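Working notes for the structural subgroup meeting. M.R. asked for a predicted model of this chain before we commit to crystallization trials. I am recording the input and output together here so anyone reviewing the notebook later can reproduce the run.

Input as submitted:
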Amino acid sequence: MKFGLMVVDKTDNIGDDIQSYAASRFLPEVSFYIDREKLDAFYGSRDGCQVAVIMNAWYMYQKFHWPPSPYIYPLFVSMHISENDYYGIGTRFLDGLGGEFLRQYEPIGARDWTTQAILEKKGIKSYISGCLTLTLDKFEDINKTNIVYLVDIEEKDKRILQEQFPEEEYVEITHDVTYFHVGYEERMQKVEELLKKYQGAKCVITSRLHCALPCLALETPVLLVYKEEYKGRMETYLQHLHVTTSQEIKNNEIGFNIKNPPVNKMNYKTVRDNLKKVCMDFVDRSLNNDRKCGHCDFYEVRNWQDELVNNAELKFRGQITEYRNWCEELEQAKEWNEGRYIDQKKEYDKLYHWCEKLEQAKEWNESQYLNLKEEYNKLCDWCKELEQAKDWNENQYINIRKEYEELCIWCGSLEQAKKWNENQYRNLKKEYEELQNWCDELQKGKVWILNKWRQMRKRKS
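Returned structure, recorded in token form:
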């Protein structure tokens, strides 16, 4: 029996290669590299014998290449099934013939609870096997360093962590790769180099599951930055890891001291030991040709795959119409945005000139600050004098309060005098009115006398 290693031919995530590397550790030799996305296209060795393959992986982006070639003798373990793929097939590749093929190898080792739920819903027996990267063994002669690796951490989270623990030595790493034309053996060497870095680290902080789980296996303190959008893939492993979120990082509530990292939880070791046993038993069975082989008729498989693709094509036609309409809307939006760009450019030019003025104002303000600083010092001295004046005023207040009370008594006396004056005024007003009436009578008498006098003069003349 020969052995094959399942790989992802064109991956942009070294996590895929880490999973392949973990499987390769159990194999006596690797005679074939089998592309996960083209499992049905493998034609085996020249002698027509089956090739034993540990089938731990994400299934799959091109699901119409399911089921695997009859030349593959599989161990379905650490299997993750996603409803996402390039053609909208979802989990329909487990219906009909696709599900019947998988039932021949029950129970299936699911990598997580989400996968187990999908399999059970399709009537396929399964169990939680865990991820094969937990079985990685530590390398010999790796010296510990003080490096803290930040693996695919968001910029805002990195900035906050570095502010909270400024004395640490940080190195950033990404699992994004672009080595499409690098040979598989060289890719496995790159994985090994990366894992050795992780083993020698002081600790690792990552958002990648296939960084966190290998660090568990390598006994490197690791903190997983968990996002709810990856719940289906990660939730199963939260019980084994130190976990935080971006919000907890922001609130300084990570519960993980980077300066003195806590040891990892140990409850993953049972999963690790069970996985190792499953894989080693599979290799032993393969070497002894003691194996259970599934089989599907070639033409039946092709017809089933065609139907799977045809259903996906119908869905795509509807999506193409939607995308065409969307593109027309985008074209209109493009024209609108171009007009907005011209307006924004004008605004930008205005802002640029305004910024120049602000720069000049900044220099003026700095000079004013120096003057204000001097004035401030003077004000401080004046405040001290005011404090002294305050004490003097408090003493004056006590004296004024005493005088106020005396004035209140005097005002009471004035109020009584006011009432007496008002009575006097009323009496005087009455007398005034009587005098006024008498003066009116005198005026009348005066007029009568004058008239009499004129009459007398007239008679004499």
